[in-house]
């Protein structure tokens, strides 16, 4: 439409909110880089720490997930109460410190890790940390717990930031992009680890054309420094509300708010009873716990599984792609699911089924894919089955986290933290359960061979014993996702826990 004479045209809307999305996506990538690198380092840690098998790492995997779960709600509440900016800065600083400290575990007197980019010639100096040598596995468990404590609240506070900065009709897509970024980085982590620590083709002399660049300890220190760099950029650029950012013009602000008032910050008095007694909320929490139970296999035991059961090499590009397959495909699932949930709602106006349908389809397909893993005859077929499982699982991610905003509103971070807490409790249980099943399978195989202990099994016999345990685990995962479908059918995104008009005074965060 033509502007009236004498009136200058209105400036087009700025797009500052996509800068917020960029920081959210880069933070999502950091979380997955730092958590997935522990699984990529599993073989090195088993050898360096003198462990009997990968089953011993279950305590570290479970410690991370348990701490991540326990500290979700306090971190989510802080974000709703005081704004995501200060909380995210503290979160990333803390976990980056313990990522770096993980590289110090098991260091011995005079060990040298600097110089020539790797352990060995030209070293400059060594470090000695006797305490971390005496009990390296216990130290790994403690550091994993503290690392999980630090990462807790990252995604709930990202959810709060997106709630502050994005209109309702773009939130499913924004959540999908955030989770796509994290999953993609998780899928890339085995490749990054291989390039930095193992080299390409280093396990086969004829194909060895790129040697390792740095020692595995240095890799953990490097990842910690990347987190510090992110904090610096975030502190200088991000603000809790678009109204606080001078580069946001009125046209973009109108697009974000769509005629509604600025979302309220959580008041000092949180209606915990109303929140915690909501059947809707607990359906969301139960669903996410079940979803995480199966998903945690991708970032814990999968790399070692492929090396042992299908002889996938560690210093090989194809091997790195296989290990990251569920997360590569999960990234695509996050993006697809986030786009589809918003599109369904725009087309039909039905928010209840717009959020629900992707979860029902995704969990049903995931259960089927885990059953296919049982009969996969080769590494390639297993890769296809487990990657499709990752895609199917993550079809629901955009919907799940958008539901937290739909029903949480000004308590979006609290609701998201409760959901993620239950999810990571499910992950902790999965880590312990899978490790227990694997250990029982080893013990049973040793008994069948007339051996007094699994410690007497040869390397080849351990692979056979562990294989039976993995088969049982896949059956458990498939069953869990069937229950996840039932939970999705109980979730209603149209029922907020605490409606905006209940009289709570808006506070600046």
What sequence of helices (H) and strands (E) makes up the elements?
HHHHHEEHHHHHHHHHHHHHHHH
Care to count the β-strands? 2
Characterize the largest beta sheet: strand count, sense, and whether it forms a barrel. Answer: 2 strands, antiparallel
Quickly give the CATH architecture: Up-down Bundle
Briefly note the structural class of the backbone: mainly alpha
Strand content: under 5%
Helicity range of the residues?
55-70%
Shape, please?
globular
Mean pLDDT: 82
Give the C-alpha Rg. Answer: 24 Å
CATH H-level superfamily title: MFS general substrate transporter like domains
Number of DSSP helices?
21
Distance between the termini: 39 Å
Task: Describe the model.
By secondary structure, the chain is mainly α. The chain has one domain (17-488): MFS general substrate transporter like domains (Growth Hormone, Chain: A), CATH 1.20.1250. Helices cover 69% and strands 1% of the residues. Strands 1-2 form a two-stranded antiparallel ribbon. The relative contact order is 0.15.
